[in-house]
Amino acid sequence: MNLRAPARALLGRTARLRWVHLVLGGALLMPFWLVAGLVALPLLHGGSHLFSGSVPAQFAAYVLALPLAAVAGLFPLMRPLSVAMARALSGVAADRFADGPAHGPAARRRTAAWFTLHLGVGALLSGMMLALPPFAVSVMLLPIDGVREWLRLPASFDSTWVTVLAPFAGLAMLLSLAACASAAGALLARYAPDLLGPTPTDRLAAAEARAAELAIRNRLARELHDSVGHALSAVTLQAAAARRLLDSDPGFVREALAAIEDTTRRTVGELDAVLGLLREGDEAAGGDASAAAPAPTLAGDLDGLLTRTRATGTPVDASIESEVAKLPALVSREAYRIVQEGLANSLRHGGSSPDEPITLRITETDDMVEIAMENRLRSAAAPTRPGGGSGLKGIADRARLLGGTCTAGPDDGRWRLAVRLPLATGGPR
Fold first, then answer.
1. CA–CA separation, 321 vs 424, rounded Å?
2. Other residues' Cβ atoms within 10 Å of the Cβ of residue 389
3. How far apart are CA 407 and CA 372, in angstroms?
4. Of 121, 153, 199, 422, whose CB is crowded by the most CB atoms within 10 A?
5. What does the pLDDT look like over 91-113, one tens digit per residue?
6. Is the distance from CB of 227 to CB of 270 less than 8 angstroms?
7. Do 196 and 83 meet the contact criterion of CB atoms below 8 Å apart?
8. Contact indicator for 238, 262 with CB cutoff of 8 Å
9. Cα dihedral 392, 393, 396, 401 sign
10. Alpha carbons 174 and 368: distance in angstroms, whole number
11. In this structure, are residues 118 and 216 in contact, taking their beta carbons and an 8 Å threshold?
12. Class of residue 190 by CB neighbours under 10 A (exposed 0-12, middle 13-18, buried 19+)
């Protein structure tokens, strides 16, 4: 017969940890038990008190202590305390418990119910552990000469049956205690995730925190894609044009190399601005985010962007019918990134020539900024870049976050991009 499974259930590591958990619950009930026995019990039962020697008085104090424990369990910080003990000692997976203090009536009620259950069951088991082992050992020692006389047992305990069965009876008592402890620990482990697990409010808060984290990561990804991606595309085209004209047009090569130098220098500054997003949290915690370069805008950086794009040998016909210097800061920043990504897409995939340049139109109405770009499509499809295809999604995301719209797609051999950004959402931030 295999006894390992029952022995593990009664005395294994998980069972021993649950015993400790229960004993801690009993210890935590002691202050409430003392208050109930010394204050509440005399008021309710006249002269009865905790140290009167009355067993019913002690159980009455236990019953009165449980409501006091339930009230204490309503405090928000009781949940982290209970969760810490349950995670370490109950044998339940840590991810099934909630994090942080209990917020909201439902979470507090559940914590109070768990706290009361833990302390109530733990106190009962602790009392059994204090009383039953000495009694069981005394029973097991009855066959030894002089023990019955020392215990002042009546003569009826001198029978042979008592002598033979006493050790087994004492052992059965100890095994029963272990079984009760195992059952009580399993009971608490069963209800721990239900009472200390996340409530719907906790899950919603966790989902919102996760969404905020993903939004920050997506924002950073868009900034890196639009700034660094555009610069690398421009530098690649500028270097390729310089290589082709190295022998025939040294003047153009010098201009291309100067444009590459300027592009990389500005990109380092933009990269600092993007990485500054990661330092915003450090600034709030005492760090220094002042070293980050300001993000580029239409007002201050559009001319340089157009110059660097034209330095690749690709003509750009730009028409600005907007007072870009007066645009709200947020709209100006996002519009710059949209134009930057639109030009990068045209450089990568377009087939513009001196006769058919990239066209850019920025117009402004009373409440809207409109960006329209178009370029001739290549006769052959451009090779697909690994990980590419996120530029248009980034443009659409920027427009959507400002409450605007974005449409893009081929139209009669040309690629057209149209973005509308409302001015009302563009307050400085």
1. 19
2. 8
3. 10
4. 121
5. 888 888 988 888 889 899 999 99
6. yes
7. yes
8. no
9. negative
10. 82
11. no
12. exposed
